[in-house]
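Hi all, posting the design record for the shared folder.

TITLE: backbone redesign
STEP: 1 of 1
STRUCTURE INPUT:
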């Protein structure tokens, strides 16, 4: 019985030390984008852009876009590009530390609302670009886009494509 008690105490001590070290780390000052929205952060925009370009190139090849569809494709491809700038100007830690807790809550609530509004506008623009492209496609192309679009909306996104 004493042996089990020692192991439990040892495990609890390790957990406390580990949690204390983790809590002291806090958000990194040199990565302010890591501090907003509960830890969500912007990805590397160059990698996101490269990935979007690869996906668009693959989709364009699958759709066999014709010369008459090129204008709609260009509009669609431009709308599908990831944002080059973060969607919101998040305050730095020093600015937030000057606020009281209720003020900080209100500030973050306001910033989240602005962020969501901007995202809704961008999503609406993308939706309209997809519809505009779709209206120029022939029946076979529509089937391809329908299949690709249904995969994007499914759980796992690109992971589903890797399986097929």
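Okay, here is what came back for every position:
SEQUENCE:
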């Amino acid at each position: 019985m004493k042996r089990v008690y020692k192991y439990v105490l040892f495990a609890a001590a390790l957990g406390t030390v580990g949690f204390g070290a983790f809590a002291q780390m806090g958000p990194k000052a040199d990565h302010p984008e890591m501090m907003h929205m509960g830890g969500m952060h912007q990805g590397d925009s160059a990698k996101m852009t490269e990935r979007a370009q690869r996906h668009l190139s693959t989709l364009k090849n699958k759709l066999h876009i014709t010369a008459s569809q090129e204008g709609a494709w260009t509009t669609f491809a431009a709308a599908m590009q990831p944002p080059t700038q973060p969607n919101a100007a998040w305050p730095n830690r020093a600015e937030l530390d000057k606020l009281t807790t209720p003020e900080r809550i209100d500030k973050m609530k306001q910033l989240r609302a602005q962020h969501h509004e901007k995202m809704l506008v961008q999503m609406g623009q993308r939706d309209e670009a997809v519809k505009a492209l779709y209206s120029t496609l022939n029946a076979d192309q529509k089937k391809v886009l329908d299949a690709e679009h249904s995969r994007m909306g499914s759980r796992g996104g690109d992971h589903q494509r890797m399986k097929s």
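COMMENT: The chain has seven helices and no strands.
Let me know if anyone wants the other runs.
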